[in-house]
Amino acid sequence: MKIKDIKKEDLELMSYDDLAYLILKEAGTKMKINNLFKEVCDLLSLGDDVFENKIADFFESLTTSKEFILLEDGTWDLKSNHKVKVSIEDLEDDTAEETESNSDDLEAD
User: Fold this and answer.
1) How many CA atoms lie within 13 A of 97 on its CB side?
2) Do 43 and 16 touch, CB atoms closer than 8 A?
3) d(CA 53, CA 71)
4) Alpha-carbon torsion 24, 27, 31, 37, what sign?
5) CA–CA distances in Å: residue 57 to residues 12, 54, 74
6) 92 neighbors 83 (Cβ within 8 angstroms)
7) Euclidean distance between CA atoms 40 and 19, whole angstroms
8) pTM above 0.85, yes or no
């Protein structure tokens, strides 16, 4: 189902992050937070004052949601569009830090 096929009344019952999810899913591309929230506001016919007053709350809801990811270039996308990449160096660093902290604990005894 496309966003344009959803009734205005049904859109108004959805949360901002649910709308953002639909927008990103339908667009198939990553977006800057300002552009993404502007599209949410446009869907709900909300004015610039709502945009300015609610964008911080919108940012917080995206950062706490498990469905979105903030990319290195400052854009937002759906986590489902990205694979988690763990390098061996990251694992070696974590193991080295654990070993150092364990040896510190032993020396303290």
Assistant:
1) 6
2) no
3) 24
4) negative
5) 17, 5, 17
6) no
7) 6
8) no
